[in-house]
Fold each of these.
Amino acid sequence: MTIASPNTWQGVQDEVLRRIRERVWKPGDLIPNEADLAAEFGCARATVNRALRELAEQGLVERRRKSGTRVALHPVGRAVIEIPVIRTEIEAAGQRYDYRLLLREVTPPPGRVTYTLGLPDATRVLHLLAVHLADGVPFVLEDRWINLAAVPQADEADFSVKSANEWLLETVPVVRGDLAISALPCPPDAARVLELTEGTPLLALDRSTWGPDAPITHVRLWHMPGHRLLTQIAG
Amino acid sequence: MTIASPNTWQGVQDEVLRRIRERVWKPGDLIPNEADLAAEFGCARATVNRALRELAEQGLVERRRKSGTRVALHPVGRAVIEIPVIRTEIEAAGQRYDYRLLLREVTPPPGRVTYTLGLPDATRVLHLLAVHLADGVPFVLEDRWINLAAVPQADEADFSVKSANEWLLETVPVVRGDLAISALPCPPDAARVLELTEGTPLLALDRSTWGPDAPITHVRLWHMPGHRLLTQIAG
DNA sequence: GAGTGGTCTAGACCACGAC
DNA sequence: TCGTGGTCTAGACCACTCG
């Protein structure tokens, strides 16, 4: 770890961090305002602003106009999970990627899908079931529902070669998404495909995405037993 | 969703985002340089810089000196998980918080603890087992190991009133942390405390933290069945 | 060598919010 | 009211990296 020269924004940030960690400024304390810090460090106020803004984004300090900047009392840790395309994830691990489409049907979706996406009752929805393999071994089971009202082209797309994941990324503009992580017992159909005992604890990732106007898709990824989501904590 | 006036950094960002989503600039494309965009939007280059810098942090564009700025080919989704103090989490849900210390001992830690923290064999480690309750019902079981070589004060602290989580936050400067999320079968001792059937799928969060010089603590949180980690996806 | 993003400056005005 | 952070500007120099 190198210390940046103190009149750069990183240098200011390092010094502020040091004072927070060494309790020169204690949790709850008000720290000097930007103009004073700029004078102390011999730099422009904009430089101090950038340093403090990033610390505020990380939750280490709280800033309010007029009140000033305080050291956070209970800094909230933030862990960033990266969600790559599954093929990329497997190939990045140096393994061979394979993909098999198991089921394709247009059928009324279960309640959890209509509910999380906020779909009207009569919506036509495309249901896909597919397995992604790493070196020939099942890696994750994908249970996807695509809103045909928002993505009519999906009805004619060939999802047996390219995964819906990648097809959607290239085809539909996504504006926002939700992710829910939970531990669930392996259901009977997944047990058959993944060759597991029913009830085995599996990590389930439920992802919903919306376009500019309408919900696009909901997907549940069933990860094989032992799979771990690894991240670093900032703050 | 309001559109910001276009000569603010948010306005520039909105317009750039729109062009990326509507495929005016396609994945892989080079977009105009900062000076040109500033001229087009009628603002200063610093304003464009801020807009693009944030998009680069989100992974939507890739920037390199001399080459310029490109629309990312495979934007990696990022989900930010917020990790509050457990008491805060429960109280924020409008529930009553309770805490019970079940076990306190100094004992050799299991391999997964010494391994993830990188502890030497002979390290003295304090082992705590505690349960956090919401409205009187078990919410999460905490299985914590504290490195007494790094935090000797922990040996005399009273963890029956204040949870180790909060005590450590107030006492020890933390420099970095790791988080691993997995689905595991409920072990026998947890089953007794949480009044569950052994083997029930539980969401396990393994958190390790380091101070400036040494590993501080490793904690595994066993969440009750059905618990979901909710986040939003950026990008 | 030259074009690009990365950063700093000194100054200015604005928006929020505590009083 | 008025102090604070939030932002914009015009200009400058630097650092990286491609050709």
Note: The longest strand of chain A covers residues 137-147.
Amino acid sequence: MVFCIRFSLWQRNDLSFVSNRVDSADGATRSIRKLTPDDGQALKFYACGPTVYGPAHIGNFRSFIVQDLLVRVWEAAGGKTRHVRNLTDVDDKTIRGAREAKQTLSDFTRGWTDRFHRDGEALGLKRPEVEPKATEFIPKQVELVRRLIQSGHAYESGGSVYYRVKSFARYGRLSRLDERELKEGASGRADADEYAREQAADFVLWKGYKPEDGDVFWESPWGKGRPGWHLECSAMAMELLGETIDLHGGGADLIFPHHENEIAQSEAASGKAFVRHWFHVSHLLVEDRKMSKSLGNLYTLEDVAKRGYEPADLRLVLLSGHYRQPLNFSWDTMQAARHGREKLGRAHAGLAETAGTEKPGKEGWGSFAPAWESLRHDLDTPKALGALYTAVGELEKKRRQGMKPSEAAIELAAMERILRVLGVSPYFEKEVEISPEIRGLAEAREAARKAKDWKESDRLRDELAKAGWEVRDGAGGWRLVRKTGIA
RNA sequence: GGCGGGGUAGCCAAGUGGUAAGGCACGGCUCUGCAAAAGCUGUAUUCGUCGGUUCGAUUCCGACCCUCGCCUCCA
């Protein structure tokens, strides 16, 4: 097993002139490669989904949004997709969470699954074709373990079954860790299980039952127990997509051990290459740190709403950096995203006005072609967003100087098309309910203005500002806009 | 310690061997009772540091500094 060390940097292949080509970085070969479906039909894409034991945080959503973008770009390029994203609904955290909530495991995970779906929908995540749950594929997982034992890649010990890392020569290739380092890494975290392992690097495929598991267990040839974390993805991916899948993705922290272990399990069982193309999304940082509960910098969609932002603002922020690069989140960048969306909304409205009833002749990218080109080359969202704003600015200028309705119609359709691929909606003002008190203040201010009592008018505006509302006077009278950024 | 990312204006973030996209924020002007919105406009002699190659480097090479992540909980 020789891994070519010379790939110290990502290699860029030549851009194809085929208009529907989509390129993406491959984590295994560290190169930008054309994305292809092996069977020439649909792209078989397996993504590691959430563990449903609590609300997903904005970092989790970065991964899912980038996965969603990949699907959208692929499909906009004319491709078809078989997108599978699992739900991990049994593991230490879900079992503990259910016990603490005094709920059954399935009730507990169903609640968090619903929440994940609601949040995902708010963020514009398209639902994958299949969302398999680990608990629905227990027999397939048991079967996979049995095959691995038969072929000598796994062994039973003390009611659990472990993967014999030594038996798989390619182990560590994806994450570029060699066996010696793995042993050292394991040394600090001795678990009772570890005494049952032949080698510290071996990982558990099937966990023997422990009293704290309560009523969470399944019968198996090795007694009561439950599957290990890595097993579900191998079993479900191979069952639903076949033994070799085109694309497999997830957060960068899954490279080791999760994806490494998936490869070992799957390839040892099937004898075939498990994944043709790896796709890893770098982490979202908050205040330059990885998010964690202990640092108090872990945000959910609920926190975003509390500050007066919309999920779409977050989506734009999460797309503002390249997916292979760490992205630093801050509320300032959320504000920038909101303003960006307002600008897009105004540009959209302007084009719609100029276009009138005119319809575009045929589908095209118009001025947004550079943005599209950036997207299909390894999902270069920062470049694409730059191109998007540039195009919007130029079109606004052109429109003021006189643009034909037919041209506006074409550009409007193109703009909607690129926004659809990004999954980013412009910000449009909408009617919201306001309390009678607030309305009273606004009306009193208007009365003061009419009477040219500027002092009183300004005082009322300050009062409204304190309550979180911004007054904007326009030709048609006053409007109130919810202020953002308030915790 | 091993492996892998980063260091570009106040913030976010592109980019190229030939002289720094875009967004936010900020300043000026127009407009406005004042604001907001909109328009016009200004804002990095400089791309972590030090060397080297070159007519020319932020972009290539070398060394160094700082920082983040992974090394069996983790998107």
Note: Residues 1-19, 184-192 of chain A have pLDDT under 50 and may be disordered.
